[in-house]
Structure formats: C-alpha cells, structure tokens
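B., you asked whether I could sanity-check this one before it goes into the benchmark set. Here's the sequence:
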Amino acid sequence: MAESRRHISQEELGKHNKRGDLWISIQGKIYDVTDWAKEHPGGEAPLLSLAGQDVTDAFVAYHPGTAWQYLDKFFTGYYLQDYSVSEASKDYRKLVSEFSKMGLFDKKGHITFYTLSVVAVLFAVSVYGVLCSDSTWVHLGCGALMGIMWIQSGWIGHDSGHYKVMSSKGFNRFAQILSGNCLAGICIAWWKWNHNAHHIACNSLDFDPDLQHMPFFVVSSKFFNSLTSCFYERKLNFDSATRFLVSYQHWSFYPVMCFARINLFAQSFMLLLSKRRVSNRGLEMLGILVFWIWYPFLVSCLPNWGERIMFVVVSFSVTGIQHVQFCLNHFSSNVYVGPPSGNDWCEKQTKGTLDITCSSWMDWFHGGLQFQIEHHLFPRLPRGQLRKVAPLVQDLCKKHNLPYNSASFWKANVMTIGTLRTAALQARDLANPVPKNLVWEAFNTHG
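And here's what the prediction gave me:
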C-alpha cells in the first residue's frame, strides 16, 4: 500500500515566512528554502516577499524548465492541504508552456548586437567630439549623445538581468558589467537586487522599492503614515521636510528626473560598501572604478568649467527620459500595502502596470517597457517577442476579467503627473499635521 501523504494547512505554511524559517509551496509541494535563500541567484528579497505561501506562478515566470530538477532536495515531505489553482493561473501556466514549446524564451534575435553597436558608435562619436572639436555646440551635442548611449546601455543591462542576452553565462556577465558598471556607473548587482524585488512585489507600497522615493515623491497618501520599507528594512518617515517636498512633487518631477542618476550612483556605492552579500563584489567595484575614471577624465578635457557643467547636465538630463519611462509604467497604476500574494499573481501584475501604446518603429525608444504587462507576466521573454505575444496576453486578461491598461506616451505622462498632483494636494492638507519646519511655514503662511 502506498504511503499516505502528509499535509499541512495554509495557516501552518504561513508561519514559515521569515529568515531562518522560510518555506514555500510549488504546485502544492512544500519546500524548505531557508538555507538556499542566501544563495538564490535572484536574491533573498523575492523569497522573503512570497514566503509562507504558494508561489507556483512566480516560479514558472522566473525559472526555465531546467530549474524543476533542483527542487527535490528542498522538499519537506509535506503537501499543501486543499491546494487549488484558479482558472486564470491555469491559463497563464498554459501560456508559459506554449511559449516554451514555441522556443520564444530562446529566440533573442539580434537586438543585443544592434544595441551594443549603437552604444559603441554613440560612445565613440561623443568622445571624438569632445576631444577633437572646439565648438561649444558640438560639446553639448556630445553630452546629449552620451545620455542616449546611457539609455541604450540601460536596456542591455535590464534585459541581461532577466535572461541571457549573450551565448553563454560568461559573455552575459561581461555584457552586464560593460553596459551597467563600466559605461553607466551603475552596479548591476544593485540593479538586479532592486529590480527583482520590484517585479515580485509590483506596486506594493512597503515591499516594492520602485515606489519608495521619499522624501521627493509619493504616489499614495498611505505613505503619510510613515510606512516601513520591507525592502530597505527601515521606516520611511513622512516628516515636515518630506511633506514640503511632496507638496510640490508634480512640479519637481521632471527636474528631479534630470538628475535621478545621482541616486543610482549613490545606491550602487551603498550596496558595494555594505556588509550585504554581493556576488562578484570585486568585479562590480572594478567596473564602477572604470566608469569613474573615464567619465570625469572626458569631462575634464572640455576647455572650461562652464562647458564641463553643461556637458554633465545635458548628459544627465537626456538620460532622465529613461527614468521618466520607468515611472510611467507604475506610478499611476493600482497600489496596495502588504506583501504580494502568490494566489493572485496575474491580477497583481496586471493591476500594477501600464502599457505604452506606440508603433513598432518606436520600440528602440522604449526598450521593451512599452509592453510592461507582458514583461511582468513573462519576465524571461526577450523584448523582441513582447509585441508578438501581446494579443495573447490581452485575450488572457479579457477572458479572466483582469485589467489590461494602456495609454500613449503623452497620456501616460499626464496620468503620472495627475497621480503626483493628487498626493501633493493631500499632503498640503493641514488637517493631517506633522511637525512643521521654518521652510514649510514660510511657504504656507497666509494672511
């Protein structure tokens, strides 16, 4: 007689949801990934966010079929009691399987080659213009080209964090360090740590780091309660200085985006200099060092301080377009407080994202972010395949009454500013007082 299965309830599974005691369920089988969490290639944050629940949809979204063979060593011998699958999840998993059979996850095309070629040309022209021309306008134009180069290298870094953009793991790592650390000065390890947490906890105010931009921006009045960031593991204090800045965020949004790279530089240094485990820390630091050698040297080659400052401002400002693009996909979408739920994976991903409608000839500009819903549901799918699968995703959403929101680039900007304005006006409401400082008093005294 076959041995009867041992079951545990969802309530019991939910108790194993922290560091040192981390269990998950995949297709109803319970796995203890406590020790594996620190070694997890996607970082510890995704596992902690989904700990103590069934994570099947998230698992199939982020792992190829070859990953299943490694699960057995984590199996506890328990099965989840009353395990069930929603109709939406069934159809979602079918799509993942169909895309896999069609080879879509492996058909990367030549986008990376073309993008790297463009990056090389932009870099060479920008450097040549700075070194070989005496024209101020040429120098400013080179600053703009440098900004465009950073945007395009950013798309490579983004893609390589989700799937292999090169033929081997080693070449993929080279592309990451080159496009992120060396050319852009952004630690790819920080990007993956941050971005994986964002994908798993899409638009959770306390779990998604991409919505935690205090003291400059908030997208919801819920931040006024000084939420605790489960990603940064600290309290996001909504004090008087933050209230002042947030009160005018719909006006400061674009100016701040022009210099948003400074935050990425700071975050990169903070991670690399922290005690947090960083894979290939030495290589990451070497890549950052390369950037901070060539970029300041190039700027120093300009004839005077006025042109040097303008070159930096222009290059940063042009790259600000990409920072705006990241915000458009999520700032105006549905938000929630609390950890993500594995039981409504598709719903959470579609609710928290916004597609940008555009013609195919503009795909180079958006770098795949125009199909944000498709990207969040199928993060391993190369961006060259996103337009192809969009109709299937729309059908999935329509069949199961899931939101599928899209807007033009212009409309998405209007929606984002509208969201920021709403929160700004709420922050000004003196019925919700916080300790005021002199700056606040100076700008808000009447009579």
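One thing to flag: The chain has 19 helices and nine strands. Otherwise nothing jumped out at me.
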